[in-house]
Amino acid sequence: MFAPFLRSALTSAPLLAAAVAGAAEPGDLEFFEKKIRPILAERCYECHAADTKIKAGLRLDLTAGWLQGGDSGPAVIPGNVDQSPLIKAVRYTGLDFEAMPPKSALPKEEVALLEEWVKRGAPGPAAPAGGGRARQVGLSIEEGKKFWAFVPPVEPAIPAAPAGGWPRTEIDRFVAAQWAAKGLAPAPDADRAALLRRASFDLTGLPPAPDAVDAFVRDARPEAFARVVDAMLASPQFGERWGRRWLDVARFAESSGGGRTLLFKDAWRYRDYVIDAINRDVPFDRFIREQLAGDLLPAANHEEKSRQVIATGFLALGPTNYEEQAKDALRMDIVDEQLDTLGKAFLGMTITCARCHDHKFDPIPLKDYYALAGILRSTHTLHNYTDNVAKWVDVPLPLPDATEREITAHEAQVAALEKKIAALRPANKKAPPAAGKGIAPETLPGIVIDDTQARVVGSWKNSSVTAGYVGAGYLTDVNEGKGEKTVTFTPQIPHAGRYEVRIAYTAERNRATNVPVTVFHADGENLITINQRQPPTVAERFASLGQYRFEKDGAGYVLVSTEGTDGFVVVDALQFVPLDGKAGAPAATVAAEDPGARKSAAELRRLEAELKDLKARAPSRPLAMSVKEAVGEIGDTEIRVRGNARNLGPKVPRGFLQVATTGPVPSFAPDQSGRRELADWIASDANPLTARVTVNRVWAWLMGAGLVRTVDNFGVTGERPSHPELLDYLARRFTAEGWSVKRLVRAIMLSRTYQLAAYATPDAKRLDPDNRLFSHANRRRLEAEEIRDAILWTSGKLDLTVGGPNIVLGPGSAAQGYEYGYVFADLRRGVYTPAFRNRRLDVFEVFDFADANAPIGVRPVTTVAPQALYLMNHPFVLEQAALAAQRTLAAVTGSDAARLDYAYRLALGRLPTAQERAVALQFVAAVAPPDSGDQARLDAWAQVHQALFCCVDFRYLN
Amino acid sequence: MIPHPLLTRRQALQRLACGFGYLALSGIAAQAAVRGPANPLAPRPGHFPARAKRVIFLFMGGGVSHLDSFDYKPVLYTHDGKMMDFLDQRSIAKTGAGSTQRVMKPLWDFKQRGQSGRWVSELFPHMAQHADDYCVIRSMHTEGVAHGPATLFLHTGSTNLIRPSMGSWVTYGLGSENENLPAFVSLSPTLANGGPRNYGSAFLPSVHQGTAIGRAGQRASEAGIRNVRSPLRTPAEQQRHFELVRALNEQQLRARPGDYELEAVASSYELAWRLQTHAPDALDISKESPATLKLYGIGEEPTDDYGRQCLTARRLAEAGVRFIQVNYSDNTNNPAWDQHANMPKHKDHAMRVDKPVAGLLADLKARGLLEDTIVWWGSEFGRTPYAERNGTGRDHNPTGFTVLMAGGGFKPGFAYGETDEFGHFAIENKVHMHDLHATILHQLGLDHEKLTFRHDGRDFRLTDVHGHVVKDLLI
Q1: CB distance B206–A864 less than 8 Å?
Q2: Which residues 6+ apart lie within 8 Å of A498 measured at CB?
Q3: Do B332 and A920 touch (CB under 8 A)?
Q4: Measured distance between the N- and C-terminal CA atoms of chain A, rounded to whole angstroms
Q5: pTM for this one?
Q6: Domain range for residue A94?
């Protein structure tokens, strides 16, 4: 209605010849064009205009642009200067969002003009036709439902067996069916010794015993291979090997990594849970439910309850920066990490691409991300979301009744003893010294810092009015200038370790009851409030501020403030008493003088020793890393605009990925997170992804490559399956057989396809260079743990203890960075090697151990010089080679040739070739001629064993 | 001596010639498990002609106070001791609001230095003499209020997510110019604050990960590449054993002629052997002249340790190493420069690095190496203009701080950007850490928007979706 009028009225401003938004006065538009548009054009268009970029979805080259705004909502609220985000941004206060323009603040005059403009109602020309913002989006949900991975698997027809009878199983028929079209022929069957070695590493991660190889080679029965496969599936080593594979997917680690790496001392329980579940062939759908919602599932007894709680460690043990200061961002980062892990692990989806915007390729809208995020945000992964250094959730595990009674009894004993000690303590007091006389700091144990050595800020007065102080008097703030004064004590800590920190003050009635004292220690900071009207309790002089860890010469300090105090604040001295027994004698109490006091002091010491001993013998109440329902905070969550935790968009109802949901979405109870429903949706026969992703990984682990080679990505950017029907066949069979991993493994192992030789014919190389059609076996490099375990197995030193904790806990293990100085000394299987995020066992470091920071279905394989350096020079390799040599020399008393056979069979599972024999025996003769002593012989054979560890046939499975 | 059938190295190489050809010139991390003859570390041109070939990053872990060193703010003297409202970042991260703080003046006097008249405090007297050699960026800002997140952001462009470090991106983009040494080296890195992730390759091929030489807490004089020396055997014994390994592998490879993957294993031993033979020389500073050692403060305290690191960096730069991190750090979570409670302690640290850094600049300049070497001196963030909790130290400040950039086409004697009058927030010509990353890549001939790697179905960059090349900094 205004438009025709304006069109004629404002001919002098051709740019305005469209229309205006709202009821703007003509003068306002002129103001906009003359004063505001030039500012926007010069300062903002570079990033917020159609011709250049539209950052954050915000256009400032048209009225609708600032009114509708970008990802964060409207940029301008007409008339409301202070609430308009654009004004907040250019004022450069930088609180909720980035200050704009990013490079430099605007001149004050320009900010004032923009403010006036908003005050006038932010007038501007109306949008030209067709204006608006475009987004790049991936497939729509409807398109996505037609994408292969989201189409539920159907039972395929089993291809007919070709003439010649090559296939042994249905799997073979699917594989063989594709060869004909390409003109491919299968490789010959694998050599039996090689096959057993391959199967043994694949199922147990260990080489077969030489005798077992001989027996298998001799066993001509048709079911010979099935027998050895069944035996290996039933061995505890199967769970260790296959558990390790799942631990890769679950990005399992025993420390947090990142900034302050913290030890996950209870993570081993999750590892054992995985190994046990695989050994017991727990149906995989149940395995999924337990990991996502085990704490919420019914349990028949305390063991089952424990198992299920431990299983949820899956959600808890990600790489988290617990020190992140913006706790709301940390909370959403944890949710994001959990979605990333469960998305890849179970669904083969990169869900987290949709955290800031709709997925650019896959049919996952932003809304779906926050539908899932609502479930995990209704779950607590941290004890609270306020601590300076946050703490993960650990929960006490239920115990059998007998143990529960034992613990309760013990706790009562401790309490009784503590009461006795407390009763003795007053008798042990020492009278305060006469007025005017200070206690010499050097007579006190530990590190004592007098107030004279502290740094003071503000005006403090010296005083010695109240007796019982340390050194020469104390400081008082004379109850003035509250909040302007501080005293800082900076200790020179001689040894890293734990210290009890105590503060000395003289109590009086005029003192403050609420003196804030902050202790900055190696693991963060703690604020303690001291009541200086109460006499201090330690020897009537010191009040304990708690026990903390400090670094040697570190940055630790204690700061006393007067902020908000309600009386005189006095500061006398600070004491750091070492608790690790390193830095001098620990303080007991100040020595008593009269015999009675001496006697009670002796009694006190005895009781204290008894208490310490009792505590050391405490039956442990086991804890597990887990998650908890976020009671009081359960519910749907808001979209975080552009992923910014503080920038809230509309709320999204909890739910799943729409594209992979076939039935109706359940309703979510207002007092339950919805993890059970999430687990049910994932672990369902009807989910088009879960079974396919799982069988594809199992295939890849046995065959060296997946039917979908991007095993963790079944999305649009992943690869398409080479054998879609076989994939569906395996998925359907897997769910029909009760999600049994062992049955699936067995079926693949018994196929003839698995048992082919790892050798490509020239034709196969030419026709199918990547072996996507599996016409021969893929040669596999041993993984890091297999290399280490095989070395230890060869030397005879491998410790086959199954399960249990394996990190040696020592002083400082509760603190950050424990892993830095950790000495890896155990000889248990690699799956039990402490799996720290910031520090790995050397052999894992060089041989591509899985990155424990993200789910990984198939490890990369690299060949790099540090591997060669490791095998040539690392003390572990040298030592194990020497032990293997001792074993060889002890076992074979005959000729060097017989010794070499023995060494080869141990290390490589075969006999040496004639040439190898010549090379090796010549070497032995040169290093240890016949007349040389035992030491030379041992050294020669140690070097032969080491060379076998170095050679390609040790590293590769054929 | 063992004659036939053990081969000499030359014979072995001849027999395996076709397999070795594509690998022979790669460095320690020579990756070979690739199909076909592509060496991922072969030197290659960037997106456009480069102004610099390599980077030496002098990392000052913990956060040097820009207000006590390179960002002169007179108002801190006039307002010293006053209680004022500040948008304290730690308090904002926790509560969303600022807090009242006591202004604290610099503890070291400032003077104008050099022809350029740059203000430098007495904290760094030696570096002050090079005021005309470096570009001072006073308007840096970054992400992460705590050391871990901010240090990871500095090195990888992300506070929390798992991303490749900058050196990995650079070797991924440009390859290596050295056949006997790693392309990316981290001298004395810390295990804390992200630890190995600060020189890790994340999802880039592991061939691009940094090689640690020494570690924080170990004397630089004892630092070396891991497993490069045998703890047991003499060089002659090692040679004999190496030849046994070579001969056995040669036999096993014969069964599968033309197999790249297995040949790569054999050649990895050749490379390891070369490294074992050459790397100790590259790291050996004993043949440097007494004058050079003195220039870096080697042989005297407290400069010996960082001096050795800086001199090693120069030797590695000369040898063609692409990216060299020289870490002044330790393994604690309150790293060296983290003076929350005790600002005067800054002097102890300054005395350890000042002369070595100045020596490195002088040495590179004298050798003409500063032309195509970027020397970057800086921390993960700066410090606040006010005393932390009214005490005697300064807290972290990611919203405004200073870095120095010398050589490699950065304008010498030039100052860029401003913080506000208290030195708290960068306000003029702001340079985000992403911008600095983009600018350094640009000088190396790499377009930060084109240096991408596809992972998890999308393209990743060092600068994520951010970063601008700050052309004003460049000659």
Answers
A1: yes
A2: A547, A548, A549, A550, A578, A579, A580, A811, A812
A3: no
A4: 82
A5: 0.74
A6: 2-119
